[in-house]
Amino acid sequence: MNIKPSTPFPTAALIDGQWVNSPKTFAVLDPATGEKIADVPDLTPEDTKRAIDAAAKAFPAWAAKPAKDRAVILRRWFDLIIAETESLAQLMTAEQGKPIAEARGEVAYGASFIEWFAEEGKRAYGHTIPTTVASRRYVTIKQPIGVCAAITPWNFPIAMITRKVGCALAAGCTIVVKPSEETPLSAIALAKLAVDAGVPAGVFNVITTLDGPGCGKVLTADDRVRKLTFTGSTEVGRILYRQSADTIKKLTLELGGNAPLIVFDDADLQQAVAGTMASKFRNAGQTCVCANRILVQAGIFDKFVASLKEAAGKLVVAPGREATSTIGPLINGDAIEKVKSLLSDAVSHGAKIEMGGKPDDHGALFFSPTIVTGITDKMAIATEEIFGPVASIFRFETEAEAIRIANDTPFGLAAYLFSQNLSRAWRVAEALEAGMVGVNEGVFSNEVVPFGGIKQSGLGREGAQEGLDEYLETKFICLGGISA
What single string gives the DSSP state of each residue in 109-122? Predict the structure, then answer.
């Protein structure tokens, strides 16, 4: 296949296959330097309605297209993303800040969802049901739910879009995407590659805007939008949930987390430290499945802290574009202030900073890798998502105590545990109140497994077969009048 580069990418929104600009724009800034990268259109709720109109118009033809034909287009999109890995990674690092090596990894991760769903969409099987009456036959079929809306975050600006859009398109749905105002360029670049791959006009639309609440109200109020998928804070998720009630939309909500990571005395120390580093410090700690509370059993506590300090000491804080960088900037000033506030509160209640604990001198949005011990449930850092490179460590004595602490949260997205005892690992994994549990692993997300949480961490699943089902309706057909 002849894959032609698409760079430089546009800086416009996409509605009905047309690149849309606006007299009103907003700047996209590099968090490492504060410099402007580009201006993008600041669209309005009226523009959002136009995008819904386009998606509704495009839906019948796209839904009617054979799944195999949709898969061919999605496969082309995958190939283009892979061909543009470096330009996409450079763009992501510029607007989001993550180290370039992580950005390249995210491009591959994001592309994997397109490849997976291109194939999985061909397997949206219904089934036959044994009859209860001789003259009847029962079957079910799967059909696309309709026009969808996606509101996506800044921390994984490519993967959080492909995980939603690839799935929706494979199922036969059309979609309107509202990316984060912090990282709209990655969304636009993906949309350009989708257009190049042959995704028809109106099937994939991108709205760039600073008026998130206004555009969100349009997406939730329009009864043509049958499905809303959102990744972000629990607070905003609640608002979208309420706003979607009148039109009874199907929802996938991937919301906040407060992930525990438990290290038992019988853990492999090297394995536990490596897993903690991967979970805690990836993307400078700005992930929803990040280890937010590290629980270490007393017998291994001192050795673990010493080993974690040694490993964290090797992290390199630098702008993400530098090849040696392993910790880039936080996304904005609010993120820095939150980390500083949580650490100040913890120290005021008796916590001890073992290393770091202060901003880094590379720039206003950089924070040094930090380890803090003596954490208790009385501290704000124990209940709030840190979203920064701060490892907060609890000490515990018994398995029962660890499970109690781990589950003492309204959130239930991810959890981790490290133990070489198979019985304990299985027992604790079952007891943890989380939608996903990593056993002796610090990173477990991929395209073939379901991703999602329980409790106030959200609804539904993304990825895997379960993700495809979120965009399909099951229709039962009763065929009567069958004569012997």
Answer: HHHHHHHHHHHHGG
Q: Where in the chain is the domain with CATH 3.40.309.10?
A: 259-446
> Which pLDDT score is estimated for 7?
65
Closest CA to 166 of 181, 153, 177: 177
Q: Which long-range contacts (CB under 8 A, 24 or more apart) does 331-335 make?
A: 331/31, 331/96, 331/97, 331/154, 331/155, 331/182, 331/286, 331/365, 332/31, 332/182, 332/365, 333/364, 333/365, 335/286, 335/365, 335/387, 335/388
pLDDT at 3: 38
Q: For 144-160, what is each residue's pLDDT tens digit?
A: 999 999 999 999 999 99
Q: What is the pLDDT of residue 6?
A: 57
How buried is 133 (Cβ within 10 angstroms: 0-12 exposed, 13-18 middle, 19+ buried)? exposed
Active-site amino acid positions: 254
Task: Give me the pLDDT at residue 484, please.
Answer: 75
Rounding to the nearest 10 degrees, give the CA dihedral for residues 455, 458, 463, 469.
100
Q: Which helix (H) or strand (E) holds 480?
A: none
- CB–CB of 206/183 below 8 Å? no
CATH of segment(s) 259-446: 3.40.309.10
Rounded to whole angstroms, the Cα distance separating 209 from 213 reads 10
CB of 132 within 8 A of CB of 468? no
- pTM for the full model? 0.96
> Which residue ranges does the chain devote to CATH 3.40.605.10?
13-255+457-476
Looking at residue 65, the DSSP 8-state letter turns out to be: S
Residue numbers of the chain with a pLDDT score lower than 50: 1-5
Count of residues in the chain:
484
Looking at residue 5, what is its pLDDT?
44
DSSP single-letter state for residue 276 = H
Distance between CA atoms of residues 144 and 64, nearest Å: 10
d(CA 208, CA 187): 9
Tokens of 399: 């398995």
* CATH classification code of 13-255+457-476: 3.40.605.10
Q: What is the pLDDT of residues 350-379, one digit of tens each?
A: 999 999 999 999 999 999 999 999 999 999
pLDDT of residue 4: 45
Measured between alpha carbons, how far is 207 from 389 in angstroms, rounded to an integer?
Answer: 31
